[in-house]
TrEMBL record:
<feature type="domain" description="HTH lysR-type">
    <location>
        <begin position="35"/>
        <end position="85"/>
    </location>
</feature>
<dbReference type="GO" id="GO:0003700">
    <property type="term" value="F:DNA-binding transcription factor activity"/>
</dbReference>
<dbReference type="InterPro" id="IPR051815">
    <property type="entry name" value="Molybdate_resp_trans_reg"/>
</dbReference>
<protein>
    <submittedName>
        <fullName>ModE family transcriptional regulator</fullName>
    </submittedName>
</protein>
<dbReference type="Pfam" id="PF00126">
    <property type="entry name" value="HTH_1"/>
</dbReference>
<dbReference type="InterPro" id="IPR036388">
    <property type="entry name" value="WH-like_DNA-bd_sf"/>
</dbReference>
<dbReference type="InterPro" id="IPR036390">
    <property type="entry name" value="WH_DNA-bd_sf"/>
</dbReference>
<dbReference type="InterPro" id="IPR000847">
    <property type="entry name" value="LysR_HTH_N"/>
</dbReference>
Amino acid sequence: MVTLDDISPHVKLSIGNDEANAVFGRGVAMLCRGVRDDGSLNKAAKNMGMAYSKAWRIMKQTEEAFGFNLINRDGAHGSTLTKEGTLLLSAFEQLERDVSTYAECHLPEIFKTL
């Protein structure tokens, strides 16, 4: 049997611009992290079990919505994050850590007050 002590928060975060319908969420972050770590959108997609064409489409749509590139594409030589891509990924990762830590710390307190 599950008790309240067994329940933990699961935070799904995104950052973006509502007017432009631009969203940087977990999926885009995972692709950017893969590009940063592996130097290739294709490798990032494969590591996620995703078709390269889908990863490319997601990145292209996200870049168009924001109005700037998240990755520099260099054909057969792979890809790297742009300055904006690096900043968005870093901000997303920091916010995700902070929000998750906050939620984990405060969920038990919230249960006690209800």
